[in-house]
Amino acid sequence: MKQIGGRALVMMVFVLAFTLGTAIFLISFVTRGDNWAAYPTNRHIYQNGSLVKAGTITDRKGAVLAQTTDGVRSFAADRDIRKATLHAVGDLGGKIATGVQNVFWQQLTGYELLNGTYNVSGRGNDMQLTLDADLCATAAEALGDRAGTVGVYNYKTGEIICMTSTPSFDPNNPPEEGSESTGLYVNRLLSGTYAPGSVFKLVTATAALENIPDIEERTFTCDRGVEIGGEWVSCLHDHGKISFKDALAKSCNATFAQLAVELGRDTMTKTAEKLGFNQSMYMDGIKCTASSYDVSAARDIELAWSGMGQYNDMANPFQYLVFMGAIANHGQPMKPYLVESITTPAGIPVHLKADGKGSRMMDADTADTLAALMRNNVQSNYSDASFPDLELCAKTGTAEVGDNLTPHSWFVGFSQREDKPYAFVVVVENAGSGITVAGRVANRVLQAAPTVDE
Q1: Do the Cβ atoms of 390 and 420 come closer than 8 Å?
Q2: Phi, psi at residue 345, to the nearest 5°?
Q3: pLDDT at site 6
Q4: pLDDT tens-digit series, residues 355-378
Q5: Distances from the Cα of 410 to the Cαs of 87, 193, 276, 400, in angstroms?
Q6: Which residue of 119, 165, 212, 290 has the fewest CB atoms within a 10 Å radius of its CB?
Q7: H or E stretch at 453
Q8: Could you give the CA distance from residue 63 to residue 45 in angstroms, rounded to a whole number?
Q9: % helix, strand, coil for the chain, step of 5
Q10: How far is CA 420 from CA 15, 46, 156, 233, 453, in A?
Q11: pLDDT, tens digit, for every residue of 135-148?
Q12: Do residues 88 and 318 touch, judged by C-beta distance below 8 A?
């Protein structure tokens, strides 16, 4: 009896172990099966570590951005378009983590939980993006050989029509292994962070409009700077007595330094976080690098510098694109999205586009006042003649980055033309003046942008 009992106990242990192992496998299969299937040694969809079996990706006008022909995956016929859309579309090896080929590989290949990639055909499912490939090429040409990014989206619908990041490369002729450290694989719109410089004054302006009742009637004193707590904040010009409106147009450091200290750490932080700082934003489920604003341990002089976009402020270009969309759309942005549709070979949709309204960033009155102030920036300081027929509302930024490096060049804003309802962000690394460099890039791209009826 003891022998039988011992054998029964051993069998029970084996059964329990088998049951536990099966349960662990099933849970892993459900939660990690897609990762197993996406491993580059899976010859159903990869060849020599490169994705080959996936559907066709097109831009908003139907131009092919990536396709598989006779078992070979290739990209757009035009080399300039291949490079300009690289970071949005992705590369064959999946090194561009935010590219749609990497993020949406399951839908593109036809992967299923039960069958995996066993039944994947050579065609897969087709994807249409909201991008205008020609506009992306224009943006890349405007950036030239400088590192940076351009983002443009329709603030009424959420469609991203331009997402370009440089430096780039030809995905049909990828660089050799070991080039990861050069930043070639980074989508700077989604994953980059930069000192914002004076574009952050829009955050301080928002806080002032929402918390200082008479801010539009106030005047400030700028004596080529201002003293804060016994230390000096410099300004590029001696503005003398200056109004809030003119201070934003002329980007007066002294004014925004004083405002940041008057508003205080808590109010500045609360406003920055309402506008997207210190949180991760998502685009089509892709996690973007968070902008950061931390003045918790700042002295008054450091708080002053933070109010004009220096100190330790860091901004993600995509977050600023949404911020601009919120101002243009009366305080509540439309969610930007890139993927318009994914359909099976039979024409059955397998993806719901991520359109809809995002969280309100400010009340409508604040947004409309900011829009008027930004319109005044262009009319009174930057000149409408530099941006003909765009009815532009904008703010420049020339962000100091230390170590005797040339500042980053920023230009952000939106067009109020009914047929060009586009918000934009341009960042050009170590390029100098915001208006001279990023402003010219923005004008070239917006002039080439299609009207909504095209």
Answers
A1: yes
A2: -55, -25
A3: 63
A4: 689 999 999 999 999 999 999 999
A5: 20, 12, 18, 11
A6: 119
A7: none
A8: 23
A9: 40, 20, 40
A10: 67, 41, 10, 39, 9
A11: 999 999 999 999 99
A12: no
